[in-house]
Amino acid sequence: MELCKKRILVTGGGGFLGRHVIARLRAIGCQKVLSPRRLQFDLTREVEIHRLVNAYRPHVVIHLAAAVGGIGRHLKCAGEFVYQNVVMGCQLIEACRRVRAEKFLTAGTICAYPKVTPVPFNEDDLWNGYPAEVTAPYGLAKKILIVQSEAYYQQYGFKAINLLLANLYGPGDHFDTENGHVIPSLIRRFVEAAQHGSETVTVWGSGTATREFLYAEDAAVAISRAAEHLETPAPINIGTGKETTIADLARMIAVKTDFRGSIRFDASRPDGQPRRCLDISRAKRLLSFQATTSLSEGLNRTIAWYRSSLPTAAQVQDGKTRPPVERVRKCA
Hints:
By secondary structure, the protein is of the alpha/beta class. Helices cover 42% and strands 14% of the residues.
């Protein structure tokens, strides 16, 4: 498929990943990229979804809209995560089938894998157990969309694509210390601790859990390639194939933010899944995709972006003290 000739609908285009995906689509020549906001179309309401797809009649849909966050928000908003992610995805797939959209791509998550999965995670192991309890509501909501995609492909020939994305990070993320993902949350904590001369930074969990981190621009490349080249719903891992312990991640960020104090790990807080590392051979084979941004370089760019977004002394004096990158999201 030549994406540049297609009318593309990106849900969640105003979000962290969505902005990178839209930038990538425009960079490869896509002129008809549509990305309405929630104020225009509430994707949790069926009537709004049908109004959206009938108004835009997209050839390709890239579904990135989601209720998501770090472990803290998972603990607070489990019900919201199940309801919103299932309702948005299931209703949107059905509406797109009805208007004969040519392709539908869902950004899934490696939270869908069983809590204990042989490392590296292979797509064939996706159904061999229950996900980690902390993130299960989100992971299972995304898994039901895989089931729906496979059923629709079998019955209707509906071309749906499911990508299982590693933990994303990069410029434009939500730097919220309580509800954000681990990298932006830690960056903010360490930057503020260095500025204030704090002696200690506390990190959730034991520090022994591992995660695989994917720079958002690399993820956008994988998504655009998948939309171009794939037509079947079999899930595909998108990541780097490299795992990092939370302890090592915290130490890297401490060094890069010039924090000179000590790091304390709060083992009373949940670790979540013990290990995460993906088998990325399927993505290499089918998409010729391999992430090009190292974790060290990605952290450098993300930290630089965060620092550039902090309020200046003049803004503080004028009472504008909230960093523009912070978006505190609360449960409904």
